[in-house]
Amino acid sequence: MRPPTPRTILKATLTHRVYVPYVRIPEGRMVELPGRGSTYVTDTPGPSPDSPTVVLLHAVGCTGLLTWFPAIGPLSRRFRVVTLDQRWHGRGIQSDDFSLADCADDVAALVDVLGLEEVIVAGYSMGSIIAQRVWRQHPERVAGLVLCATTDRFRASVPERAFHAGMEVAMFGTRGLSRSRIAVRAARTTARALDLQPDDVHDWAFAEFRSTSPWAVGQAVAALGRHHSRPWLSRIDVPTAVVVTTQDHVLPPRHQLALARRIPGATIHDIVAGHAACVLQSERFVPAFLEAVTTVNARRRDFSRRKPPSSSVPA
Predict the structure, then answer these.
(1) Which domains, ranges and CATH numbers included, belong to the chain?
(2) By three-state DSSP, how is residue 104 classified?
(3) Is the pLDDT of residue 164 over 90?
(4) What is the pLDDT of residues 77-92, one digit of tens each?
(5) Which positions make up the signal peptide (predicted)?
């Protein structure tokens, strides 16, 4: 039996009304990325105009806010914090195809639109995969990486290879469904409802969760199955921290640790928590994540001294 995804975990817990942290939800806006499309962005200022910026990338089947809402407030006491909905998720770009490479290019485009320079890119689960690709494709825009509940590949075992191969075949035949009138209408109807700020955070979280269609989740999972960053992890030349979820049944902790050890100088910040720790065990995740981001930011100056004047990354 295949392991549960973050989406199925969140659906089960939200519908059963388990504890979800009650925090202020930042307001956002639609931002046009020239030549790419529009996506929903939140931009929370830090304590000063020159605060370093952290761009947060969300898990599969979620949105920027749904993955990160418990962490935004604490993080904004030290950093400017930006979230976005990745394409096909929430109010993200509705393109004809989904690819991790396009998602990484979207992040770089948003950095340009917001007038940012080097940023710390942090990702959770799928977001950590996209964060890896942001460095791979746009190293000049990345000052540091924080990778949470991550891996360098998804086909490391026979069951995983069988699952992802089957998912890829199945999703190839249903790509057109993601653009169907019914699916798009349902996603937009739910997205409009998200403009309200309900008193019950469970209602808000469940509505946010429902804003991504099942078709989009399937296509994203199929794309994740093709990810393989092991050959180039050792070339990462920015300070990196890896937050390891040691009770993770979706991405095994040994894979998370193996990735961390392949990145030069990466620090490891482990927590006793499962794959949905970003929300459901936020009391453990947020302090470790804040420590990881702070560590990466503190090491930026040291890494800039060590890097050669010009850095090129082979394609």
Answers:
(1) 6-306 (3.40.50.1820)
(2) helix
(3) no
(4) 999 999 999 999 999 9
(5) none
